[in-house]
């Protein structure tokens, strides 16, 4: 359900926990240059350039001449302090498919790529000892975490470029535009930027009014416990304002019948990112104190008396700690078959009788004129959590004091959700907790925050603007071709798997063939009428930022409710076009690559195949492999959850995954070990994606469908370039705090092990870099799954 709606390639910062973790950036940005159609001759291009562009072009050409001179030298320049072993020249050994001699790519794209690669590499490091350091060492030195951020890497650089592109396009929209959706995006952005200081003038008033609508809060004003009803408060908070706590529910695809929708309920309700923050008090006391300070500050800003507010907020933390005690860790929730429990609402009533469930759901579906009967099925993903929650609520409902704690908790869950939409003093209150969690107080440029927030609310309207600016030419066709080549390479390797029986192999091939892909953007966003229809019922005003967000939250709730009686739309996107990420959805057996990630340095239609396949190709292979990771394998080619592997193959697969769990659990960062069980699915995808992309690339070379040219002044073969390109996608810097949080929460391994882990399991890598058996990058024991 919620934890496996879709698998993303890169964990989004905002999803690291339920606290508000929007990243801050202060570094400058530059546009990415995009090319479409046939290149013009240089003189006609120069005529249309500005003076500055002409100077920059001249410098680029001069740089190209210098690099050409370097690569044409009769004696090849050796690297300083080379490794103690000889890295083989692949050209000499594979002349059947790679031409020899000085075949260098001297296009502008290749020259600039070569310069970036050289600038990032630490060639003094031995690639067979630590390939991540070899590929990224100089980049890491030159790119400390910028002020206001907790992490920095290639994803962030591209995201900043995308934000600038969208901002320029958004600001250029005239107020009399015919596109209502794009105008709403512009108005939402304007409201966020607050040119008339409306947000500051209103202060706490919008949230205070919301608290009154909920029924009051003992912390900030008068509240009558004797007239309070949990049922009424939950229905208001969850089903009117689409916020709140205790548990999560939604309408989603039925795992066992992916053609239909069903109500789903799962555990939830914690504010801090993991249960361990509450339960391991010794290690996290300072963080818990900072969390209490934050809660107290917000409560006081809303009218609470400081001492009373602190005492009541401490009781809320104690309540959240009780929730944490029976919240299941992520690593124990990886078996989809065991997690799925479908039952009628009448059975849920017996399982968790702390509210009247039939009344609760009818309060929600009343918004779409849909009546819910007690025989309506719901999928409960954690029955033990719901049972324990019911017992906890029953216990707390016995006294007026503890009833107050429940209401304080529920209102707090709402308050903390919307404080980012209030004045600066509310936003600044979060800095201390953010620093404790991530090692940085933030400090994002307002326009960047507002672009990100607009993308969250009206992302497909922004997507139309973004796509018109950047996603031209043959990008979509090239991406589709790459996916098909990688899919074929992935399938071709099935016959080499010793643990898979023939019957399962045949079904696995069918599933791989059935995986659909969506690339760039949904077609409807380029039709202004269809785009307007999508946001027709969402009201946006340019001076009502807080209210815009409430309306957007309620708008999304209604969209979910309508889905219950509708068939699953398999062409529906869950990620907006400007997003720098990708995902796989098991119930649709579908991989999705937004236009935002199909940009340099991940992907460029003018780039060498070795670079495209090493960077974007591995992303594609990663998402494809998710269809066969420890969770994805439980869904068949139609997206339905059931066991389609025989027991013998399942057991052998688990033996192979045990090897990978052990491998990654032995990796340590700053004294903390990776949780190999929690990160298993992503590690399987990282390993399988690398191998599939490389095999697809080598096949292209053999068939002479890929450019065999080297890059100027980069003394690497095209195969070596593939691996360096792959590794440099993950060049990154992090604060110690954010790295610790990642180790405790993220389903992905830290960057260096997303590089070194898969490479050390890949024999072809060791051949390309001549790594001797027994070196760290070529261990004798390798964990091989796909």
Automatic annotation (TrEMBL):
GO terms for biological process: protein processing. It is found in: Cell membrane. It comes from the Eukaryota. The chain crosses the membrane at residues 55-75. Keywords: Hydrolase, Membrane, Metal-binding, Metalloprotease, Protease, Transmembrane, Transmembrane helix, Zinc. Pfam families: Peptidase_M13, Peptidase_M13_N. Residues 127-522 form the Peptidase M13 N-terminal domain. It is a single-pass type II membrane protein. One of its GO terms (cellular component) is plasma membrane. Its cofactor is Zn(2+). One of its GO terms (molecular function) is metal ion binding. Residues 581-783 form the Peptidase M13 C-terminal domain. Belongs to the peptidase M13 family. This is Endothelin-converting enzyme 1. It comes from Aphis glycines.
